[in-house]
């Protein structure tokens, strides 16, 4: 299988000190090789079970962005179909997903299935036909018919996924990203990423690494228009946030790239999250931040 990756310019530059595109591409290839057998078998199984309904399979997330950690990352996939897939077809497909998950990383596979018609022009909130992740594994195993009947609806997260696929996604099979994915309106993308961090003050206790790095990349977009991975968001935070933020960000980055578990002091972590949310709110509003400088709205050059 040969990677077909979107052709993007470097995302950093001197200001945020982030590694440039060639470094990310090298890391992406390294992660891709670790999962190549899984991705090849997943693609073959998807084509077999979904047949002519399948438009394409698109890889996104950490594996596509060069920060994959097999101990902590999942494999993020978006499947696009030309038409609705029957419940029987979905069950056949999901049986293959459960079988192939055993070959994957510890967190397994996370995927969504959407119709092509909702991607160009982009519909928000975005309807999805099927979703699967480790969180729903037992439900699928115990009540598969109930699962396929109910696992559909609207998912605001798909605006963020589609945006990042347009930036850094990899086509595993089917039509090119440019043919399938229309531009995601800025308002939809911002709403999607803000929803993801709105409960950061509470969530940081249970998911400190994810929340810390995700807050950094959300602020990086709102201030500088940058589309970053969590790892790159942390690097941006080290360059652009006050010194008191550095210990938490450094610890989050160290744990993100290793098997270590992060256990920050609860009050310190909550204070970080709440301050980040204030900066995010200020950046979203286009008003002055708390660091003595103005923050410009996103949407400029990136």
Could you please describe the fold and organization of this structure?
This protein is α+β, with helices and mostly antiparallel strands and 302 residues long. It has 2 domains: 4-186, no CATH class; 198-285, no CATH class. It contains 14 helices and 8 strands. Strand 3, helix 4 and strand 4 (109-115) form a beta-alpha-beta unit. Helix 11 (208-224) crosses helix 12. Mean pLDDT is 89; it is low at 7-20 and 287-302.
Protein traits:
six-stranded mixed beta sheet, 2 domains, 50% helix, alpha+beta, two-stranded antiparallel sheet, 8 strands, 302 residues
How many strands appear in the DSSP assignment? 8
Query: What's the overall geometry?
Result: globular
Largest sheet: 6 strands, mixed
Distance between the termini: 31 Å
How many structural domains are formed by the residues? 2
Output the strand order for the largest sheet: 1-8-2-3-4-6
- Unreliable stretches, pLDDT < 50, 5 or more residues? 7-20, 287-302
> What series of H and E elements makes up the topology?
EHHEHEHEEEHHEHEHHHHHHH
Helix content: 40-55%
From the alpha-carbon coordinates, what is the Rg to the nearest angstrom? Answer: 19 Å
Mean model confidence by pLDDT? 89
Which percent band covers the strand fraction? 5-15%
What is the count of helical runs? 14
């Amino acid at each position: 299988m040969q990677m077909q990756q979107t052709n993007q310019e470097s995302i950093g530059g001197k200001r945020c000190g982030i590694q440039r595109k060639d470094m990310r591409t090298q890391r992406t290839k390294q992660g891709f090789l670790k999962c190549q057998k899984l991705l090849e078998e997943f693609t073959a199984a998807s084509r077999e079970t979904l047949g002519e309904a399948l438009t394409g399979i698109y890889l996104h997330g950490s594996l596509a962005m060069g920060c994959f950690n097999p101990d902590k990352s999942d494999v993020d996939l978006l499947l696009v179909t030309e038409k609705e897939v029957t419940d029987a077809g979905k069950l056949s497909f999901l049986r293959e997903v459960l079988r192939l998950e055993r070959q994957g990383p510890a967190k397994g596979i996370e995927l969504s299935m959407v119709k092509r018609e909702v991607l160009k022009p982009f519909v928000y909130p975005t309807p999805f036909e099927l979703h699967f992740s480790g969180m729903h594994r037992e439900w699928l195993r115990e009540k598969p018919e109930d699962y396929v009947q109910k696992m559909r609806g609207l998912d605001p997260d798909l605006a963020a996924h589609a945006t990042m696929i347009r930036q850094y996604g990899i086509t595993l099979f089917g039509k090119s990203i440019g043919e399938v994915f229309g531009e995601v309106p800025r308002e939809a993308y911002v709403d999607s990423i803000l929803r993801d961090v709105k409960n950061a003050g509470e969530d940081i206790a249970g998911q400190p690494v994810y929340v810390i790095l995700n807050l950094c990349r959300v602020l990086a977009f709102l201030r500088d228009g940058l589309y970053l991975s969590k790892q790159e968001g942390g690097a941006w935070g080290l360059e652009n946030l006050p010194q008191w933020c550095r210990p938490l960000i450094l610890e989050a980055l160290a744990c993100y790239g290793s098997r270590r578990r992060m256990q920050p002091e609860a009050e310190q972590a909550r204070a970080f999250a709440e301050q980040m949310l204030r900066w995010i709110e200020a950046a979203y509003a286009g008003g002055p931040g708390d660091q003595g400088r103005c923050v410009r709205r996103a949407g400029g050059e990136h």
